[in-house]
Amino acid sequence: MLHHLQRSSILVVNNIDSALEKILPFYPSHFTRVIKNSEKNEFQIVDAQNAIKEAYIATNETKYIFLCGATFRSEAQNALLKVLEEPPLNIVFIILVESKSSILPTIHSRLLYKNLKQSVLEEDIDLDLKYLDLKTLYNFIKENQRVSKDEAIKLVGKLVLKINRDKISLNEEELESFSKAITLLNLNSRPAPILAYLLLTILEKERE
């Protein structure tokens, strides 16, 4: 599940950097922070302290703080206990880790848990985005015009993965449109026009 998480969660993934690349486009860049040790692939006490400081910077919008490490030091997790249990207003923590066993039971019991290893992050979509044309776009929208909200959100996720795999370069505004699409779908907007807009964005990008 790649779209917006509304509650603090633990996501177990195959690789932190790869997961961030695929997940972050779903989150508003201005209200997303990534706390990650640049020298070691381990979440340490200094990272926990930085996360706590960031959490207490007030915001009127939901702010997503990603806590990332292949493993997490026990003392770092203990430092996070209070803020995870009672986060400040509008703060959602998302822990990205490569092994469930590295998370203390006291942390695990406080957060939602999702295992994304070898599954959702590897899904693809049956579209050649580099050779997308209006006919293909129309047929795709027609085939998917009656999908459910959850199915439409999954399709947006697959589009993001396909964009990454095909190395299609989108600017920040274009990436933000995928995040907004998820928000609109969660508000029960019709999937067809949203999917059409996203595909037209890709089509125009490839024509540049």
Outline:
The chain has helices at residues 16-23, 45-55, 74-85, 105-108, 134-143, 149-165, 172-186, 191-207, and strands at 9-12, 32-36, 42-43, 63-69, 71-72, 91-97, 112-115. The protein is an alpha/beta fold and 208 residues long.
What would you report as the Rg, rounded to the nearest angstrom?
18 Å
Structural class by helix and strand composition: alpha/beta
Amount of beta strand: 5-15%
Number of strands: 7
Helicity range of the residues?
A: 40-55%
Tally of separate helices: 8
Q: From the coordinates shown, what is the CATH architecture of the largest domain?
A: 3-Layer(aba) Sandwich
Number of domains: 2
As for the CATH topology of the largest domain, it is Rossmann fold
Shape descriptor: elongated
Distance between the termini: 32 Å
**Major sheet details:** 5 strands, parallel
SSE topology string? EHEEHEEHEHEHHHH
CATH homology-level superfamily of the largest domain: P-loop containing nucleotide triphosphate hydrolases
Task: Write up this protein.
The protein is an alpha/beta fold and 208 residues long. The protein is built from eight helices and seven strands; from the N terminus they run βαββαββαβαβαααα. It has helices at residues 16-23, 45-55, 74-85, 105-108, 134-143, 149-165, 172-186, 191-207, and strands at residues 9-12, 32-36, 42-43, 63-69, 71-72, 91-97, 112-115. It has a five-stranded parallel beta sheet, with helices on one face. It has a two-stranded parallel sheet with strand order 3-5. α2 (45-55) packs parallel to α3, α6 (149-165) runs antiparallel to α7 and α7 packs antiparallel against α8. The longest helix has 17 residues, at 149-165. The relative contact order is 0.16. The model has no long low-confidence stretch (mean pLDDT 87).
